[in-house]
Amino acid sequence: DGEVERVVGEVVARGRARKVPLLWWTGPSTRPADLPQRLKAHGFMREGEAPGMAMALAALEAPGPAPQGFVFQRVGDEATLRACCHVMAQGFGLPDFVEAAFFQLFLAAGLGPQAPLAHYIGFLDGAPVAASSVLIAAGAAGVYNVATLKEARGKGVGALMTALPLLEARAQGCALAILHSSALGLSVYRRLGFREVCRIGQHQWSEPDAG
Question: Is 136 helix (H, G, I), strand (E, B) or coil?
């Protein structure tokens, strides 16, 4: 019990010192089981939950045809990573400091072909409009940061940004894909073959207003 309180307290202290909000996910493997209540006691507010989804990659089929003018590529340099992070921030409605933090974090993790965390960007008529990330570990591919700008939605771009990286992951030997979905992406992931297997709690902390 004391260790849990110490760790949560240290995380909150770092957020307070850096003047940034915090996001903590909980799920079926979260320990201790009462962690959500402990987070609440430290000022975290539960911001709802998202479906945790999974699928066997053997069942993944090639996506439908891409819209005219669509180009997909893996991010391999800093300039493209900046564009990728900007799409993520715009697609999710994130502030500039989060976009900058994404860039620094992803750059530090590496952009080489052997990096476990890969980022992808989609262009439509030459303009960056979509992004996604895939983390490969323990034979599974975790899909994150799937974002499509408003002007490119409804064209199958989100499905492409999910399926194409997963086809690469399957070719590298991954057997399983996992993700947690927003309400906007749920129907897309279901059509690709993902099924809900759990619920992921989302808990947010921010410094109370001084005034």
Answer: strand
Q: Tokens 């850096």 sit at which residue?
A: 18
**Beta bridge mates, 128:** 123
Question: Could you give the CA distance from residue 144 to residue 134 in angstroms, rounded to a whole number?
Answer: 6
Q: Which residues pair with 142 in a beta bridge?
A: 135, 178
- Nearest-angstrom CA–CA distance, 188 and 71: 19
Q: What is the 3-state secondary structure (H, E, C) of 61-85?
A: CCCCCCCCCEEEEECCCHHHHHHHH
User: Tens digits of per-residue pLDDT, 162-203?
Assistant: 999 999 999 999 999 999 998 888 999 999 999 999 999 999
What whole-number distance in Å separates Cα of residue 210 and Cα of residue 113?
46
Kindly state the tokens that stand for 130.
Answer: 């979509």
82, 119 in Cβ contact below 8 A?
no
pTM higher than 0.85:
yes
* Residue range 72-117, pLDDT digits in tens: 999 999 999 999 999 999 999 999 988 999 999 999 999 998 888 9
Sorted by sequence, the CB contacts under 8 Å of residue 101 that are 6+ apart come out as 20
How far apart are the C-alpha atoms of 59 and 57, rounded to whole Å?
5
Residue carrying the six token digits 């860039």: 103
